[in-house]
User: Fold these one by one.
Assistant:
Number 1:
Amino acid sequence: MGQETEKIKVSAVSYANSYPFIFGLKNHAVFDQIDLQLDTPADCANKLLSGEVDLGLVPVAIIPQLAESHIITDCCIGADGAVETVCLFSEVPLDEIEEVILDYQSRTSVQLVQLLAEKHWKIAPKWKQADDNFIQDIKGKTAGVVIGDRAFPLRDKFSIVKDLAEEWKSLTGLPFVFACWVSNKPLNAVFVSEFQEALNFGLNNKKESIAFLANGDKETLERYVEKVISYKLDDKKRQAMKLFHDWLSKSL
């Protein structure tokens, strides 16, 4: 018998938009080859950058920071229009906002909102890094970017809700990619093929993934993963990702 192969360390995002991926991995033989960790996007990014994991569903904003990067699948977390869970929340109109608190769980969205402020909304607020309890500080002329499942209940609580993916499409005419599967080293081609198979299985069983993994309002989450999130990393999304990276390199 040969020596047991060391497992590939994988970080996936813990939000509901990743449930189909997690479900697919947990119900495929490839699961035995990986050490799966569930993290916020920011932690997923940090782990891949530090080499703590080999592969991650990482915020696309950090890809240029990697010494070596390989996009290994044609799956992503994206949206062609509104994404619903990446929003700027405010009590006042955009031109009255003085400060924006940036969600500590995010990497891509905090860059995206600054690009939108500069290029689309033509505003120049102060930017503030969030602490754990920052949502309660979104009031008056202080707005905030909130990402992930925490954004769902806030959509009815603020008079101004700017969906960042929708605003990006208004500006560029393109979809937006928030995260994709990136490794920081070359991975075995057979493993990559099996990993893609597992993701595809999850995407073909989105409703089952919500039933298996979700708590709370499963009907809302089913609609979200089936109708809102766009999981295919196609040519338009790759074009959008390139534009985003180009703008980041020049603006921030």
Number 2:
Amino acid sequence: MALSNKKNIVALDTNILFSISQYKIDIFDEIERLLGKTNFVITEAIDAELDKLSKKNKKEVNIAREVIAKKNVKKVKTESKIADTSLVELAKQGYIIATADKALKKRIKDYGGTLIYLRQKKYLEMDN
């Protein structure tokens, strides 16, 4: 998927998708509150990770899959087949990354990427 302006394209990590059911947060409204009109993507590696977690985290995965379909979240291909590394790859290309993973946040910050992350399990905040 080639999207020309990556300024308002947010790549979603698995754990931020899980926060929808775990903390009852509408991440899409929250992100659009921060950025305005936004396009959302997941990587093929995130999609595969959801498949892998579907037995252990059935409720979270089902809700994530529902909102991915409802919000027309696009799937993008990356070189990496590892979920976190695929998001770092997108951060290097200028995508905004939404995650609740501390280690991933550090990796993306180290590359100067823009982050959206969970605060106090209640709302999302942006860091760039």
Number 3:
Amino acid sequence: MNNPPIAVLDLGTNTFNLLVAASAPQSGLNVLCSAELPVFLGRGIEDGTLAEDAMERGLDALRAHLATVRELGVERIRAIGTSALRNARNRGEFLRRAQAEVSLTVEVVDGDTEAELIMDGVRLAVPFTDRPMLVMDIGGGSIEFILATRHALMWKRSFELGVTRLRARVPFSEPPTWEEELRLAAHLDDRLEPLWAVIERHEPHVLVGSAGSFDSLATMIAQARGGTRPPGALTLGFDDLAFAQLKDGLMRMDRDARSRVPGLPAHRVDHIAYGLVAIDRVLAAGGIRALAWSRFALKEGAAWRVLNGLPFVP
């Protein structure tokens, strides 16, 4: 049966990401191309509107990604909008312009659907067990949490606590102070009470991280070990001590020092501290000692669904 490759565009709050993939008998997904462009569509996100310059950056990124898709000769293209587009009052303007200027239809998904697509992707990269594991996907606008075993998705929820939102709500000094970190921790603790109840009841033993902050974290962990993250690696395991050592070092750095850290992309220098504090709160709440990074997340889950004849959106 002819099953041509598919291109999936993930229109996030901070980055617009491209995946071109084909089906693969063993792994389930053969990645032909993966690219990320910083857009900061959600800059100023807390006022509920997309700025004109942010929309222009987004459209420019779409043009660049679609040029890559054309060069690869891929005809099937799907696009997903997440937190920034979910919540912006003027999202219709951006969606109309995407259709009119680059001939792209963007499907904006709700938080539950985003979590399900993330889980579809993570399962392709990380082996699950009979014991519950907690997935945490950190974006610019939202954080998705999914509790799952190898047999079932047990619970899922999206929280509007992405790193761009957190930075707007609890600004940090350079470097962040201990008092600022405590304020952010309290902000998270107050809003994550449903998650704390799930963790207390089910006691997940591994935190699986995907996207954004976790991509950078995995690269920095690998480099701290004296190597690099293998380009084709689907997962990387590490423990809470390795995480704590990296977090403590980064939280003592100012922006200039962070910008020189190997493995930390320039577009994450301003946001990484917020992701690290969020991860730290989850580890502390569950007494979780083991972590695993997943290379695959939302766009891989969406591609896998289409390539396997399932609806693009669950």
Number 4:
Amino acid sequence: MPKATSKTAILPEAAPAPDYDPDCVRCERLAAFLARVRSAHPAYFCRPVPPFGAAAARLVVVGLAPGMHGANASGRPFTGDHAGILLYATLHACGFATQPEGARRDDGLALVDCRISNAVKCLPPGNKPLPAEIRACNGYLAADLARVPEGGAVLALGRIAHEAALRALGERPSARAFAHGARHAVAGGRTLFDSYHCSRYNTNTRRLTPEMFRSVVAAIADHLRGRGPADGP
């Protein structure tokens, strides 16, 4: 990797890439932060977190980034933190998960016609990735969303995930504003659904209630109903 000239130095945005590179260090700030966290928490995963679920799933859920003591610790998206409690319970209630909880990577949870990814694969300081880091990681997300078949759906959790998903799908983020409960027709005959992120802050402040979140995921289930199951593992 070329020597970086600043603490936020990032390599130029890449062309579409595989959806996961366990050794990616494109973003110097994130790589350095992960190294410090790894030193403080040697039992934590502390690497880019791979997507979870079948590659050919008709629904891909896009979050923001791994949480410090959640996905960054467990190595599986939304596993071990507060946001995962509501996410997995809702996916299970709507038929997209085999059990309502996801506490550990080896807990036997499986997704059904669903895959979970993130706009940024690495833990960012303060849970706030920089715009350049989101762009640098977008090739991985683009490769992930490219597998969503015609008629499939993408669920964006929050505005940043919404914009990253649109960019990964080859759409202009400015053309489709984020709004909780909104749905947008996007390239390839797919549909992008929006929800507030199921974070502790949003649920504690009631910006997002379990009923609000379930309404969005149930709408996706209705959207997919009547189509055959996705091919693949």
